[in-house]
Description:
The structure is a homodimer.
Chain A: H1 4-16, H2 19-25, H3 30-44, E1 49-52, E2 55-58, H4 60-82, E3 92-98, H5 100-105, H6 107-117, E4 121-127, H7 133-139, E5 144-148, E6 157-172, E7 192-196, H8 199-212, E8 217-222, H9 225-233, E9 238-242, H10 243-248, E10 255-273, H11 280-292, H12 298-308
Parallel strand pairs in A: 3-4, 3-5, 7-8, 7-9
Antiparallel strand pairs in A: 1-2, 5-10, 6-9, 6-10
Chain A binds a DNA duplex through helix 3.
Amino acid sequence: xxxxxxxxxxxxxxxxxxxxxxxxxxxxxxxxxxxxxxxxxxxxxxxxxxxxxxxxxxxxxxxxxxxxxxxxxxxxxxxxxxxxxxxxxxxxxxxxxxxxxxxxxxxxxxxxxxxxxxxxxxxxxxxxxxxxxxxxxxxxxxxxxxxxxxxxxxxxxxxxxxxxxxxxxxxxxxxxxxxxxxxxxxxxxxxxxxxxxxxxxxxxxxxxxxxxxxxxxxxxxxxxxxxxxxxxxxxxxxxxxxxxxxxxxxxxxxxxxxxxxxxxxxxxxxxxxxxxxxxxxxxxxxxxxxxxxxxxxxxxxxxxxxxxx
Amino acid sequence: xxxxxxxxxxxxxxxxxxxxxxxxxxxxxxxxxxxxxxxxxxxxxxxxxxxxxxxxxxxxxxxxxxxxxxxxxxxxxxxxxxxxxxxxxxxxxxxxxxxxxxxxxxxxxxxxxxxxxxxxxxxxxxxxxxxxxxxxxxxxxxxxxxxxxxxxxxxxxxxxxxxxxxxxxxxxxxxxxxxxxxxxxxxxxxxxxxxxxxxxxxxxxxxxxxxxxxxxxxxxxxxxxxxxxxxxxxxxxxxxxxxxxxxxxxxxxxxxxxxxxxxxxxxxxxxxxxxxxxxxxxxxxxxxxxxxxxxxxxxxxxxxxxxxx
DNA sequence: TCTTTCATTGCAAAATTTGCAATATAAAAT
DNA sequence: ATTTTATATTGCAAATTTTGCAATGAAAGA
Lengths: 309, 309
């Protein structure tokens, strides 16, 4: 019989239309996902999707299953809600560290839901440079961080994907100089650059310049993604930031988006240490994120599709 | 996450309110069922039922889960139907052997559903003495039998419970003799008895007389349950038959039901050989039965409850 | 008090699931 | 045309989970 988890997995597959990426999103290997699909199809005696190199095409039967899955999972969510699954007993403090942008985007939803579930659980929130996030997790007494995943994910952390989005190259609108021409036509190293101090964003930027084979002319190094947009808007130089940070910045209108960086996607995830994942309070939040995460991802899907076209 | 199979299991538990019996119906051990419940409760962070010696009491949360399960399983059934899960490709012949009574009760529903699923699968139906059923399964080229399960279930057969019901002692209304007085007050061995030739019914009858410590006065031995009622109605003697056979007999009005035999329940199941259970056509029917079986059992529940009061 | 009935747990065997690495194959890039 | 990239699937061994038996415990009934 169908496991609702598999149903949820299939829903994600329908959104991304890509087996490998879905697998990553669900924290399983592609082979496992492949076998999950086989299992589902075996149970239902029907092909649910055609899996080709070009993409995953949901069949008619697949769409029927999709709508079943959606219904069933909604009802399951209702059930959970109606069970009023409050864990009064759980109290204490959970500390979360994240960037300001993340605090705008994810924290409200997360804490809202959390309060319904565990009203006595207190949350301490600290915002700061996301570059420090993963280190904080190991060093200090932080339970969760919201962070971009590094390419090599340390195997002592457990994570839940929240969103993935591209990095963009932005330049000031101020008349410091004009960047409206094609950026590939001149040397980026001649233009002052606002560089993130460290962290995953720094890695990606380094990678970008490495691929251009022209080192950047670093004007200033900045800690904190939001500040990068601010400095750029003030005309200090061009820079690279996650699109989300740009979208939300109050200086959005003072900068141009020059282009998206290809192959540089930011996977933002809620992370905790595997050790502590067994703690009741940590587990509750992790599970909650697992449930809520898909509602953050539609953006991702649209973006992916846009990119591929 | 919830597996729909566990949800179905829970529904059955709600009906029978008895863990051990539910386990038997679901073909799992009580320990497994116990653990299944723990798992469910762990996932939902709620107690679903209080399991006491006196019986299983569904909690409020349990009832919520029950209605969720019912909804979800209905939708699943709809999905299967809408997938129009016809297996055109499957053709061939499947042979089923059962009693006439079984053919009245189960076969129509079963074949109806089967035809929707596998229209090209041909069914050969043979009715006869259920005593022979299990032997036929091993000997001849019969794929399925509907049979009462023996106390020691051979481990080369796979089965799906259909119904369970009590055996009853019946006597003719004809003026051969009157049995309206308490049967325990006179010696059963003085009364002519219509004895089933062999099979599980015979075993149960033997057990009954053994417990009375008075051997029966066997008037005749008969093959086939239905014929026993007929002979009894004609005044040949008293007899023991499954209640279901009595309920359905055209001679129902010509016999009295003296009493139910305690502890003698007939578990009727659809059986096949484990070897052949892997065959596509056999598997399809087995799965179908698994799905349809619960709709036969409410009778059982009522009966059980009646008995226990 | 003794027996019966029922649900739960330790434990070891059995079954299933998992991810890695290898394979295969189509599209894209050169 | 050939190489490279991206993607899905399978063999296989390890890890995890599930299972049933037998033992335990605990309440109800005789």
